[in-house]
Amino acid sequence: MDSVLKEYGRLQKSGDFGKYVSDIDQLLGALQKARNTINSAPQSRREQLALVKSSTTAFAEKIGNTQKDIHSSLSKYSKALDKKFKIDIETSYNRSAFPPSSRTLLDRAIAMHLIREGHFEPADKLIKDASLSIPDVIEEEFKNMYWILAALRGHDLKPAIDWAASKREKLAAMGSNLEFSLHRLQFIHYLLTTVDEETGEPVNSTRRALQYARENFAPFGERHMASLSKLMCAFLFNSNLEKSPYVNIFLSPSAWDDVAKSFTKEFCSLLGLSSDSPLYLAAAAGAIALPTLLKVGTIMREKHTEWSSENELPVEIPLPESMFQFHAIFVCPVSKEQTTDENPPMMMPCGHIVAKESLGRMSKGNPNQRFKCPYCPNESIPNQAIRVYF
């Protein structure tokens, strides 16, 4: 990858179109100056046109050289990519995955992704051009979300706190701690800030934080008593928080980012949406799986074999749980069906797990019938299997 990164760095350096803008601005300035001179002194027309011609030629040559540098860097970067990535990724593209009938669904996914990312103008254009039916309220909600996030980036918690208070019952039903987290961060911010943000006047940070705690922490006493106790004990170390037992709470460098992520997650949850765009997750999963799938495809072509199972990958693709773990479900590897309370997952002594119904079919309904595990040589009986809870 070193050669690719090297050429990419060169492309970034030479591909600055600001050079074009600067050169063209200078050329326009020279033309305007010549025009003004001719208007004020018509007798200098021939002389000014000669100057314009020479300066235009010089600027054109300069712009041409800049363009050559960009094209040269782009060409070298493309060659470096082709040399590094020799496999044609077109071989992994399944054209039947997006038939013409699904075009509207694909357009909608793209439009929703743009809305979720805060790109409202191109989203509106796509919705109009593709005649999509996406309720205006969704875009308005996300505009509100980004307004609140902008305030959070400016260390202004009030819009987020007001929103959380207005959704208190719904957030409580979800088991969310967002409202308390926002109030806790505001308390910490007050305790660490010795100057009023609005007036610039010095303030008694301890008194202000204590007053805020009295006014806002009472509703959270029963559920968050342990956290509140730590916040109150921090007053004892206010002059030396760096060496206190609470340094991780009060001087956390990621505190504002963490609360912004938590706010985004809860905001999307109340809309019935995931915190990450499904289109982004699909693209990320595809990028992770692509090298393995290309390799498998090459092997299959060489051996003249095909993968026969529909809607199933030929190999297992491990994906990072931090991004791709959504909810606790288990799909039986034998029946290919999700387990339920009536058909729960059962773990055999060898450690492999199948659905209860699959266990019954393998043992032919006899609880004492020995059978071989479909994934290893070990044998067991249904009575030895235990239920698994996710």
TrEMBL record:
It is found in: Cytoplasm. Residues 141-198 form the CTLH domain. Keywords: Cytoplasm, Metal-binding, Zinc, Zinc-finger. This is CTLH/CRA C-terminal to lish motif domain-containing protein. InterPro entries: CRA_dom, CTLH/CRA, CTLH_C, Fyv10_fam, LisH, Rmd5_dRing, ZF_RING_GID, Znf-RING_euk. Coiled coil: none annotated. Pfam families: CTLH (PF10607), zf-RING_UBOX (PF13445). The keyword Zinc-finger applies. A zinc finger (RING-Gid-type) spans 332-376. PANTHER family: GH10162P, MACROPHAGE ERYTHROBLAST ATTACHER-RELATED.
